[in-house]
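Section 3.1 - Work completed
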Amino acid sequence: MRRLLALLALLAGIYVLVVHGAVTLDLGIGRRTRALGPLTRTIAAPPETVFDVIAAPYLGRTPRAMQDKLQVWERSSEMALAAHFTPAGRLTTTTVETVRFERPHQISFRLLRGPVPHVAETYELRELPEGTQFVYSGELERTSGRWARGGAAVWPGRGSGRWRRRSTRSRPRANAARAARRMHQL
């Protein structure tokens, strides 16, 4: 009985480490790559404004409202290294990503550490007469199968759009439009 409890405690500990992103179990078996997006939105602001709104927390000072969701460890004008914190039930998942900036038309994210083996995402900003076409695309590689369902249930593989996990990134349209209106009022 004690051995069973010890085994259960060990498995629970491993599960917590995987969810936190401290350990990635990459056995190389049962992997599936899934396309994320493309999702397209039109934003009533020029690409430069949309780019600045999305890049501001990474290139400048992280806003107070995002400090419990984002920590930028290193930053330069072209790249940032950032940790993202996402609630996953009672636990918090931590991912570490590089964010590359190609002003004013592209922002790319690449997972370095987290509960899945590979994630790459891109925000493309295309100029339109009415503003900016925002295109989100990427790919998520995760383990699949019954043995991995615990981690997969916590890490959203059920939808695209930044995996429905980063509410701060789901608002670029409103934030960019608001910034564009403020610029026109000056």
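Second construct:
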Amino acid sequence: MRFIDNILEILWNLLGVLGKVASFLLSVAVKILAAFWDFLCGVRGLRRFTDRMNVFFRGTENAWNSSLAVVFREGISGFFLHLKNLIETSRRVRIWFFIMLFTVLFLWFHPPYKWGPWHYHESGKASYYGSGFYFNRTAGGERFLPFRYTAAHRTLPIGITVMVVNKDNHAKVYVRINDRGPFSGNRIMDLSKSAADEIGIAGNGTADVEIYTRKKYGK
């Protein structure tokens, strides 16, 4: 048990170092962004845009410094300080902290939708959304965002996650069905730009893919 305690203490100290490094990098990034914004404010052609954004920034700063926000920040800060003291002084709290931390990390890199068997659904051509569809309303009711891992399919239920495999390079991506289509050509699926990049079809425009689902669905 002493060995485990030593390992947990080393991990805790390592987290502290990483936190300080992250805080330093964040402060540097904020200074760089502030300097860049000052530069943009000096560009005459952007004056109208920067003036509007400065009004927004001032409103955000006033809300951040309001009495309610200060009380909330102090409460959050006090909670994390108390938690830090508990982790440093209580062996049991430290063990549970790392159990929860490793659980969160595991679920982050291996989310539940990747677990279990996958069932072959169909094969065919897949393409991706052009820029003309960006921010349009999808059949699922949400706005289409090219950086999200989503796709359109004619029949698969809206909201389910499917696995798409590029038959040429065997790269795979997990996407959520949120739209209907494609309704032209011989394609079976339209992917978001990010999903298409993930499996290497953005350059060619289309690729032969296989679609797998967690449950069996009729075509």
